[in-house]
Amino acid sequence: MLPNKFCHRKQNNAANKSKYTRIVRRQPEILHLDWCQISKFQLPWLVQRLSCLKSLSLVSVHVKTAVSLRTNYSGVLQDLDLSFVSDFNDSALRDILGPNNDNRRGMGGDERYRFKNLKVLKLAGTDISDVSLRYITQYLPNLRELSLAFCPRVTDAGIAQLSTKPSNTVTNLVTLDLSHSKLITETSLEHLSRCESLTRLDCRHSLQVSTQALIKFAAKSDRDLHVKDIKLVEKRQVTRRI
Q1: Which helix (H) or strand (E) holds 56?
Q2: Among 2, 69, 130, 152, which has the minimal tally of Cβ within 10 Å of its Cβ?
């Protein structure tokens, strides 16, 4: 059975109000609000009423709308996409991921983690820096997939934080997207070799990382990795013959 999914399209204010009410009635597990003009008041109102919401996409929404997630607590949300939100920086991510200030303990609140079960975070095309990697390792204990594509301020120092204990990403991180990264060099590959579960690394169009370095990275791994599509490292697929 496919999960309940809802995609919102831009409409006038009156239609939006009615649309949000209908969304609540449907209780979707997946909600796409990409490029929508939903306000910083409407988003928290909506999210706190969606008790089954597991995946939320906010691509290119207004930064104030994205930051309004700081008023929410969700022990259910597993996938959050904040890609290409203009002016989204370290401060914005800290506000969203920082210590939980939700007093509704009946929802299983945790003082440290507002989105404690988040497994996928996409920050492509945002203005975050290495500082945000500290927030990610500090406040997302179950993160498995991270996208930092088109993030021009992220450097090797930020990637080092993902591979340094006591960060849970050392053991949990499975997928990392560093494509189109200007400042990422082959030093990051040395750091990432310590990530015990990493089986997909995308460095396409990252000019300071060579294909040869990625081939060596894959060869040294004990997870049967190989380089596919020039600078994409993946786990080798086993083909079974019948």
Answers
A1: strand 55-57
A2: 2
And the tokens for 197? 């579960």
- Whether residue 166 is preceded by a cis peptide bond, meaning omega within 30 degrees of 0, is yes
Asked if 132 contacts 93 with a C-beta cutoff of 8 angstroms, the reply is yes
Q: List the structure tokens of 75.
A: 């022990």
Would you give the DSSP letter of residue 145?
A: E
Q: What is the pTM of this model?
A: 0.90
- Starting at the edge strand found earlier in the chain, the sheet holding 55-57 runs 5-7, 30-32, 55-57, 79-81, 120-122, 145-147, 175-177, 200-202, 232-235, 225-228
pLDDT in 10s for each residue of the chain, 242 residues: 345 655 555 545 555 778 999 999 999 999 999 999 999 999 999 999 999 999 999 999 999 999 999 998 888 999 999 999 999 999 999 999 998 655 544 444 555 688 999 999 999 999 999 999 999 999 999 999 999 999 999 999 999 999 999 999 999 999 999 999 999 999 999 999 999 999 999 999 999 999 999 999 999 999 999 999 899 999 998 766 66
| Nearest alpha carbon to residue 208 among 230, 184, 192, 172 | 184
Hunting for tokens 């080092």 — which residue is that?
Answer: 160
